[in-house]
């Protein structure tokens, strides 16, 4: 899902857990109002903030709330549609040139959603198993990167369209994952590198098939096959 504004980048390191206050329908778009105490001192109109991993643009703000525009298609294709008043949301401001790159490159363009199937304990960590509602496994690899609700994570296990990530205690308590339960919908953004590699390989295969087809057609036209 594309952001509402130009290309911005994030790291997948959640900076703040905000509180969703309300959704306002205006003509052909929505406005979301989010509360975020002690977070908006350096925010300006037009800035990008990832909300549960969705890159959105600030159109209004005060000392502890900000408002973003969001198109109906974005609401429909992400878990934003499931937010209710009081829902916790992960927040991250867009990456600046001087910022430390703590996670992996995240665009804020959601590729699909997934349903939490199981949450289990493993020593001091938690394993979250998610079944993707879209065919995203071709972009994912074991021990590769993925962002869930805007959180940069490493794949612990991948099988078909189900992925498992391991959550350390710090990530669990400092994000909205601490409220996560079985059946919840999470936003998924696959690794950008994986998408580019897949596109390159797909193009190469298409070119190969095209050349093979041309060769067979030429042979057939000249009576060789």
Report on the structure:
The protein has 225 residues and is of the alpha+beta class. The protein has a domain at 116-197: Elongation Factor Tu (Ef-tu), domain 3. It contains three helices and twelve strands, in the order E-E-E-E-E-H-E-E-E-E-E-E-H-E-H. The chain has helices at 72-77, 169-174, 192-221; strands spanning 16-26, 29-35, 48-51, 54-61, 65-70, 88-93, 112-122, 125-132, 145-148, 151-159, 162-167, 185-190. The strands form two sheets. It has a six-stranded antiparallel beta barrel with strand order 1-2-5-4-3-6. A six-stranded antiparallel barrel has the order 7-8-11-10-9-12. Strand 3 (48-51) and strand 4 form a beta hairpin. It is globular. It starts with 15 loop residues before the first strand and ends with a helix.
Number of strands: 12
The class by helix and strand makeup works out as: alpha+beta
Order of helices and strands: EEEEEHEEEEEEHEH
Biggest sheet, spatial arrangement of strands = 1-2-5-4-3-6
Indicate the CATH class of the domain at 116-197: Mainly Beta
Count of alpha/pi helices: 3
Average of pLDDT = 86
Helix content: 10-25%
CATH topology of the domain at 116-197: Elongation Factor Tu (Ef-tu), domain 3
Shape: globular
The CATH architecture of the domain at 116-197 would be Beta Barrel
